[in-house]
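Sat 14:20. Reprocessing the chain from the morning session after the first attempt stalled halfway. Input below, unchanged.
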Amino acid sequence: MQISDSSSRILAGLLEARTGQQLTMSRRWRLETALSSLLRERGIASIDELITILVMGREPSLSTRVVEALLNNETYFFRDRVPFDLLESAALPELARRREASRTLRIWSAGCSAGQEVYSLAMLFAEDAARWNGWTIDIVGTDVSESIVERARAGTYSQFEVQRGLGIQQMIRWFDETPVGWRAAESLRKSIRFQVHNILEGAPHPGRFDLILCRNVLLYLNDSTRRKAFDRLSASLAPDGWLMLGAGETVIGQSPLLETDREMRGLYRLKDVTAKAA
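Finished this time. Tokens:
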């Protein structure tokens, strides 16, 4: 299917206007694959015909469907296992020490996609229940896509999805097989919340977070939008909290507000802040 340059530019502009993400030339090969099911569903013959419908403005909801189809929702449980090992072995125990007085933790997974990262976090706490007994653990997952947030909230995954990143014991312990897939146990679903949210708008209500995971989201933003995102994330972080990024992301040269935590490699903190108990 041939896609004209003008159609590509219109789709790129729509995606950036709605989400801040760029559809770079290296990602434009995905257009046909990403939109093919939507075209079949709506009986639209080509992407150029889709663009004509969008430009005429007769179906406002269609543009939302297009944007959601273009978003990269690749994720899996305990993705890139090393960051979760860092949380489990060092970061969460240190946060437990810092928050012993309040016995409250707030964690935000920004750009959570279908929820695997959020359920992975919930499993870390559930599998160390003795440490966290009597604590209030607030875990919130957000994404710009309404449909993907609905999927995350339902917590139901295909056989392929549930096996990506999970051992057989974890899968059996924390997921129930249903006629429509493997659903996260009620105890996990009750411990977390999901909402539609754009990181460029600031933090989800209420307050600041002790830990923010924003992994493999900022890669798709242009420089100015990425700086704005870092400003919002910084304002959402507790004074002694941590930000975790994806393996290919960094704050170096991107934000004057954040720096690498030398004692907790792989995490970032606000500059000029001495960690202290909340």
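The chain has two domains: 5-70, 82-270.
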